[in-house]
Amino acid sequence: MTDLINAIDLLLQDHRLIGGLAEELDTTDDPAEIGRIYLRIVDELSAHEAAEQEVVFPAFRAALERSGDHTVADRMGEHEEMNELLAEMRSLAPEGFAFTKRGSAFLLEVEGHFQREEESVFARMRAAFTPDELAELGSQARAVKQRSLTPADDESRVATDG
Predict the structure, then answer these.
(1) Fewer CB within 10 Å: N-end or C-end of the chain?
(2) CB 42 within 8 A of CB 62
(3) For residue 26, what are the domain limits?
(4) Is a pLDDT exceeding 90 seen at residue 7?
(5) What is the pLDDT of residue 70?
(6) What are the DSSP calls for 33-75, one per residue?
(7) What pLDDT, in 10s, does the model give residues 43-68?
(8) Rounded Cα distance, 49 and 30, in Å
(9) How many domains, in total, are found in the chain?
(10) Which residues of 5-23 are buried (b: 16+ CB within 10 A; e: fewer)?
C-alpha cells in the first residue's frame, strides 16, 4: 500500500528538500559538488513544477473559478518564469562560472517563489478541497513527479540520500 500524502504536504516536502539542497551549497567549495547539487535542485524542481502544472493547479483553478480568485493565475505567471530559469540552468555547463553565477540568482527566485506560494496558495487550497480531495491530488501529483524524474535523477538521489 502506498503512503498517502496530501497535495499540500507533498509540495511542502519538496520545498523543504530543495531548500535543504540549497543550504548544502554553502558547505562546499568543490565545483563538481556544487554542480551536482544544482543539477539535483533543477531535477527536483522540474518534477515539482510538473506535478503542480499537471495536477494541482488545474484542480485548484477549477475550484476557484466560481469565486473569481486570481491566485492561481498569478502563480502560473511565476511558474512560466521558473520554467524558463530551469531550462536556462539545464543548458549551462555545471563547472562553468555562468552556471554558478546564474545559480545564485536562481536560488533566490526559487526561495521567493516558495514563500509566496506557501503564503497565498496553500491556505486557499485547504479551504477549497476536502482532506480526501487533497489526498487524491497528492497521489496524482506524486505519480507525475515519479514519471518526471529520469533514471539518472533517481541514481543521483540514491547517491545523496543513502
Answers:
(1) N
(2) no
(3) 7-161
(4) yes
(5) 62
(6) HHHHHHHHHHHHHHHHHHHIIIIIHHHHHHHHGGGT--HHHHH
(7) 999 899 899 989 998 888 888 776 66
(8) 28
(9) 1
(10) bbbbebbbebbebbeebbe
Q: DSSP code of 2?
A: P
Q: Is residue 1 part of a domain?
A: no
Residue 2 within any structural domain of the chain:
no
Tell me the C-alpha distance between 5 and 70, whole Å: 26
Q: Which residue has cell 511542502? A: 12
**Side chain identity at residue 103, one-letter code:** G
pLDDT given at position 140? 96
Separation of alpha carbons 87 and 80, rounded Å = 11
- 3-class secondary structure per residue, 64-100: HHHHCCCHHHHHHHHHHHHHHHHHHHHHCCCCCHHHH
- How long is the chain? 162
Torsion of CA 26, 12, 154, 109, to 10 degrees: -50
Q: CA-CA distances (angstroms) from residue 73 to 29, 76, 83, 103, 141?
A: 39, 5, 15, 26, 19
Radius of gyration of the chain, Cα coordinates, nearest whole angstrom: 16
Count of beta carbons in the 10 Å neighbourhood of residue 72: 24
Grid coordinates 503512503 are at which residue? 3
